[in-house]
DNA sequence: AACGCGGGGGT
DNA sequence: ACCCCAGCGTT
């Protein structure tokens, strides 16, 4: 396969480089497996600089396995608000509850048990076992695949599971006796700081001397990765419903269903647009009113257009038009407040801290506050 | 193996 | 306007 000399050059020089250049990150100040675990889950698909403030707040609010296991899920979702991929938070708490109940709060130090936990896949199990317990397990993420595909000039599509298997075997072979924790962190650190996706900083790279991609002038072309499909657009009309009378100064929000996209998070009432294009504001508002009446039994009196905005997922783009509105005649029952299903609430700016919203709705509400202060 | 799942930063 | 992500679960 690859020569021992080439592999040892990589491991040895990478470790030396890491001792000098490693960043002082909050989760590197402890070997607490619970803290390492939280950081690794937050870091899935998310950059270090984004994670740091969330990590600080999270471990302060949930300092132990027991604290997170016994917390209400809504508090956990609120602490995760803005990080995205909210199933990570729900799975993390579910898994921490299992650790609390089945393992007396000790994160299991072996592959079988830790991999059985919700939200802990091959990457996260390897990361926790190596970083917290110094076990010689590979932790292969996108960063590691990029570094290895370049140094060893591997031209397989990194989106293929078979390529990941190859990388895991290779990454494990590269771990020198007793160095798993530092080595895996060093590998990711190199990918983040030096062997970057575009315009890698080869001149400062500790393993440039034997990098096959560099030698072949291929460092910019690797790794090979099949392009993802573009996200599908969805038009959505949002009703920013302002309360009157006893609800003056509040807005109507609702909780999303238990399962599926953005499960159990809160949002402004909105409807998916049945057509592929918007009409005039007047027509849009009529259609929005009808849709809310039919789907939710909410009757509104349309107000003014408020703003346009987008919410981008990896697979969908919500293209949203926001209209102000007030509650009008209700469909059924005709009067009273009891018609509001349990998952609707009136909230004002002062209660927003009690509910977790996807960022797009936070932006809309902040825009409203900004305009009303001015 | 393919798809669903957020959000922000870099160039 | 693209590109990139410190992945995992479901089907």
Automatic annotation (TrEMBL):
Cofactor(s), by name: [4Fe-4S] cluster
EC number of the protein: 3.2.2.31
GO molecular function: 4 iron, 4 sulfur cluster binding; 8-oxo-7,8-dihydroguanine DNA N-glycosylase activity; adenine/guanine mispair binding; metal ion binding; oxidized purine DNA binding; purine-specific mismatch base pair DNA N-glycosylase activity
Keyword Metal-binding appears in the UniProt entry: yes
Signal peptide range: none
Keywords assigned by UniProt, alphabetized: 4Fe-4S, DNA damage, DNA repair, DNA-binding, Glycosidase, Hydrolase, Iron, Iron-sulfur, Metal-binding
Catalytic reactions on record: Hydrolyzes free adenine bases from 7,8-dihydro-8-oxoguanine:adenine mismatched double-stranded DNA, leaving an apurinic site
Domain of life: Bacteria
Residues in HhH-GPD domain copies: 42-193
Similarity field: Belongs to the Nth/MutY family.
Protein name: Adenine DNA glycosylase
Organism: Paenibacillus roseopurpureus
